[in-house]
Amino acid sequence: MSRLKLEDLRPKVREIFSTDWNRRNGRIVPDTSGLTLTNSGVDIEACVLYCDLDESTNVVDSVPDSVAAEIYKTYLHCAAKIIRDHDGEIVSYDGDRIMSIFVGNEKCMQAVWCAMKLTYAVRELIRSEIVRKYNGYQDKISHTCGIDTGSLLVAKTGIRSYNDLVWVGSAANYAAKMTSGGKDEVRITSEVMSQLPDWLIYSDLDIYMWRGQFLGLGRIVFSTDYGFVF
Fold first, then answer.
1. 21-224 in CATH: which number?
2. How far apart are CA 106 and CA 199, in angstroms?
């Protein structure tokens, strides 16, 4: 039988709402060791990249669980390795998706370059390995990346020994929302687009690689299905 009562939660809830914030500016991605569970936080300018497997529920329902697990594992492995290769910081895994943060003057370039490499890895590596082993199921993996940039407040949340960081700001919300309903796409906001070099906007054949579209988020979103060869 549960021993916890609602009134047991009230003191901490009241404390959180009553305590002034202690905030500082940051230039690197913070971790849990640098923050406390009090109202303390770090303000950073960052680019947020969400990488998400599309329709993963349908994958689980339509293939053996071991195959679904292999798809999850290979996708998240490739995403994590590419993110780290571009100096991104992985801040959370959530089932079939991964959230990462990029900082610095080239943060948007690195995030988009990373996402387009992942598109290439999905098509040219993961799908081919699925076919090699199972002679099928290659249509069960596609992905979408959402990327936005802006100011974030980073705070520590949870309880002692069981805590994590929360990333508060529109960039984190938009990046996550842009992964919904896509298929092998990288989606970015106009704020990200404005910080990209030409080689991430035009292909080697001088073809404009992006489509402008409105996704009901109140902002113009650009998308591409180009993959970056590496």
1. 3.30.70.1230
2. 14
Average pLDDT for the chain = 91
pLDDT score of 61 = 66
Q: Where are the domains of the chain?
A: 21-224
Rounded Cα–Cα distance for residues 222 and 213 (Å): 6
What tokens appear for 156 in the block?
A: 């520590």
Q: Is the dihedral of CA 120, 125, 130, 136 positive or negative?
A: positive
What token pair was written down for 177? 């929302």
pLDDT of 56 over the 70 cut: no
84-141 pLDDT, tens digit each = 999 999 999 988 899 999 999 999 999 999 999 999 999 999 999 988 888 877 676 8
Longest Cα–Cα distance of the chain, Å, equals: 67
Q: Tokens 């109140």 belong to which residue? A: 218
Contacts by residues 2-10 (CB-CB < 8 Å, ≥ 24 positions apart): none
**Band of pLDDT at residue 78, cut at 50, 70 and 90:** very high
Q: What is the pTM of this model?
A: 0.91
> What element of type H or E holds 11?
helix 6-18
pLDDT at 180: 86
Could you tell me if 185 and 179 are in contact, meaning their C-beta atoms sit under 8 angstroms apart? no
**Structure-derived torsion over alpha carbons of residues 176, 181, 182, 188, reported in degrees to the nearest 10:** -40
Say whether 185 sits in a helix, a strand or coil. Answer: strand
Smallest CA-to-CA distance from 196 within 177, 181, 179, 209 is with: 209
pLDDT at position 58 over 70? no
